[in-house]
Design a protein that fits this description.
The chain has 2 helices and 2 strands. The protein is mostly helical. It is rod-shaped and about 55 Å long. Helix 1 packs antiparallel against helix 2.
């Protein structure tokens, strides 16, 4: 069965997901943890998954911010890429 990741159907380990998919999954994890009907092992697994997704999202945002800083609109309306070593 395929489809969007859910509490019972997370994406395969190592799979690349979009930022929006990570944020949606984080919201689902928070809801599940707030429900208070999980056993300790499942709660710890969800918490661990959430930490991993949070790190991935933070890294993706930092990378996008760096890329935005590199791209500057040139005076003629074109784009120029600034080197990383500036």
């Amino acid at each position: 069965m395929t489809g969007a990741p859910s509490e019972n159907n997370p994406p395969p380990s190592g799979a690349t997901t979009s930022l929006q998919a990570d944020l949606s999954r984080l919201e689902a994890i928070v809801r599940a943890l707030e429900a208070n009907d999980l056993d300790l092992d499942r709660a710890l697994a969800l918490f661990e998954e959430g930490i991993g997704r949070l790190r991935d999202a933070r890294d993706r945002l930092a990378s996008a911010e760096l890329r935005l800083r590199q791209l500057r609109e040139a005076a003629n309306g074109g784009l120029e890429v600034e080197p990383l070593d500036r």
